Amino acid sequence: MFESAELGHCISARDYDKAVPKLREALLKAQYELLADKSFPVIIIIGGVDGAGKGETANILNEWMDPRHIHTHAFGEMSDEERERPRMWRYWRALPPRGQTGILFGAWHSDPIVNRVMGKINAAGMELAMEEIVQFERMLADEGALILKFWFHLSKKAQKKRLKALEADAKTRWRVTETDWQRFKRYDKFCQVSEDALRETSTGYAPWQVVEGSDPNYRYLTVGRAVLGALNKRLAGKRLTVSKSAALAPPAVDGRTLLSSLDYNSRLAHKHYAKKLEKYQGQLNLLSRHKKFRQKSLIVVFEGVDAAGKGGAIRRVTGALDARHYNVTPVAAPSEEERAQPYLWRFWRSLPRSGRIAIFDRSWYGRVLVERVEKFCAEEDWMRAYHEINDFEEQLAEAGGIVTKFWLTITKEEQLRRFHERKKTPFKNFKITPDDWRNRKKWGAYETAVCDMIERTSNDHAPWLLIPANDKYFARIEILKTLCERLEAAL
Amino acid sequence: MFESAELGHCISARDYDKAVPKLREALLKAQYELLADKSFPVIIIIGGVDGAGKGETANILNEWMDPRHIHTHAFGEMSDEERERPRMWRYWRALPPRGQTGILFGAWHSDPIVNRVMGKINAAGMELAMEEIVQFERMLADEGALILKFWFHLSKKAQKKRLKALEADAKTRWRVTETDWQRFKRYDKFCQVSEDALRETSTGYAPWQVVEGSDPNYRYLTVGRAVLGALNKRLAGKRLTVSKSAALAPPAVDGRTLLSSLDYNSRLAHKHYAKKLEKYQGQLNLLSRHKKFRQKSLIVVFEGVDAAGKGGAIRRVTGALDARHYNVTPVAAPSEEERAQPYLWRFWRSLPRSGRIAIFDRSWYGRVLVERVEKFCAEEDWMRAYHEINDFEEQLAEAGGIVTKFWLTITKEEQLRRFHERKKTPFKNFKITPDDWRNRKKWGAYETAVCDMIERTSNDHAPWLLIPANDKYFARIEILKTLCERLEAAL
Hints:
2 copies of one chain form a homodimer.
Chain A: H1 13-37, E1 42-48, H2 54-64, E2 70-74, H3 80-83, H4 89-94, E3 101-105, H5 107-117, H6 123-142, E4 146-153, H7 156-168, H8 178-185, H9 187-201, E5 208-212, H10 216-235, H11 270-288, E6 297-304, H12 310-318, E7 326-330, H13 336-339, H14 345-349, E8 357-361, H15 370-373, H16 379-398, E9 401-409, H17 412-424, H18 434-441, H19 443-457, E10 464-468, H20 472-490
């Protein structure tokens, strides 16, 4: 893979000086077109061996284009706020919004490669990490991002020469550190691991381009032209066509579903409710202050049909907790800033630090529920969402998140009764809107969506709990009890 | 001040149970009205002695109201991302947007009080901190925030009793730590310092309310009713009237201004420019990599008349820097999330960490320039902005920020020449908009605004540098040279 980047490519100063003005003008023009258009973000990833001109190339792009709309990020040591969240959180923070360009150094590829070279992860761990990257980039591409990945290569001899040359010059001496020489000793291993990594993460929607790093003119022109070409191609409307996912399985022929087989007659008398409420709230409170919980976090998702009692259930959960330890995120229409980012971005914003609890009143599942049923997004978008959500929750779980998802459900008759009750009670009036009546008419479509969702996104580390909620007391106690069990099992 | 909070206030269970349902309903109603209205944020600050029920009161408010729209923040140890920014940054992060409620524990009062009790700051330092708080809260109130501050008090005897009682009960034992007893030893000093602090920071727009903490029923009802009263009063339109600031001084009778006395004929030949550019860019590059700069940050503001060459100057500055170390923030109309916060909030978002450089292409000065001239905000709003901006920049400087502000200015004739040139060059076409021509008609009004701004906001730690920019080469070198000097002086 690196052979063609050891050919000694170079561009004469004359050719370079002739080419640059045109290239700059074209790059700027494309950048402004993108800015006006705001249809997609550009993510430029820079990796490669030390001394191959990675930083200089980022500088050149900033010089050639308008630096006000380019955001460059290098990822050094994690900050403590980053360490307490899933591994990918820092990268989500750094994603450019639509219309802008982000240059990411090292980004998500770097850690696995370095860890593999240092022997901190085995072959299986490496494969897993590469698989994660492929999925993540696929999601970004599906969300419209233009992803360009450049790998700067130098032959072993060239790297040694380059490091020595940098060291010899007083102006550049600072750039060569002890670490660089230590890494140089592992050159062969590094190349071998990177080559594998590049091969596995080079995809149609996010291909790697290997750039020979020895001649500055050559590498600047190569990268500048690649960026220009990709930008113009995309701007010209030749958007990557995403393969349409296969259709979901049709409903069971006997009409039985997960939801229809629940026992909606489950009841709990008020007398028992009050006692159990105290018991489980107390237990939950103790568990949330457990020493071991300080290294964990709890993520609770509440979804359900309208009027199923999500709000009341959430209040019974928060009633057991210290207000300093939880945050409730009600999910409504995304804000302007959120709309300029991939669909899941706004949920990454609200992820809890260690020892904290995040409660979502509605959630990322909106994609496969309301957005699917109301056709707010294309079929291929919600189809791929199952997979994306599974990845997202897996990352939460890996980072110590205890993910628990409740689907609160009531029968159609019970919903009607509650709607009427809400209409009658002046104080609950605000809770019933024309939307609720509209949604009710699509009961069947929602039921299908819910069953598909549960089937595709319930698993050990992030299970769906189906709560028949015709009786509120029963539902609330079930929820509190389940949370206690989930916490107990994890601590 | 604390005497009336040692009277042994209490409310019987019967009276409490009778009062609560009505209070809850009214609180919820007010909260939903605020949510629909989104006209202001509610900031509830909770302070006081340990064991006086601070946490429990926050829990009760979350229970009584809808917890999805209340965000509770406790401020423990600073995270490293917080430590590398001005002291107030963590509080700006926690401010609730309009329509929402934030409960802040300790908040900005806590550190100065504790530091004073521990003898870490002297009386003058304390007074300064209190003055800062008064200014900050005044700014919040002027921006529309409803600020409620509750201080929970216990007499020395009552506190001792309370801590012992908590310790005796297995369920609450965890709440009493070694620190609490250590602090108890300093009860008298703590009370005296707090009493002073409360007196100095109790203002018409953000008064303290001292609450006796011994009886839970009493404190819950007191706080609940205070929140309800303040909310309803504000919702009813009885908004605090802000005293109108005094008028600015009229222009000098001889018509001479700071701007008219600049030498617009300053020129630099291209030959000298190229040499000096290399020299100062090199110098700036070295300074930005200086070891001592890792504990500092550089904040550069570019303001100027249209077509004065801000963009070109910024590119010459970034051309000297490593793309991994700087970020350019172009300031345009605020986003939806930014509009829901105080005016300065969006700039706090972009403050650099240590060792980083933030360049603002236009800035917070929009308030006293375009917003003033175009009447986008009320006179009293831009009048108070001078003061707020000075406070803001002082905090930046205190945290190690090297703040440098450039005003690029050209003559009216030169602007006309450049406008025509831009119109003719297809590539620069996008740079000239009808807005530019409109602004040009208001040349005089802008000139007055600029002179007022410079007079009121230029000072040692954040000076304005006036750059006559009829000659771009001259202007760019002046800017680079100034930045080098500012950095050299600070390192």
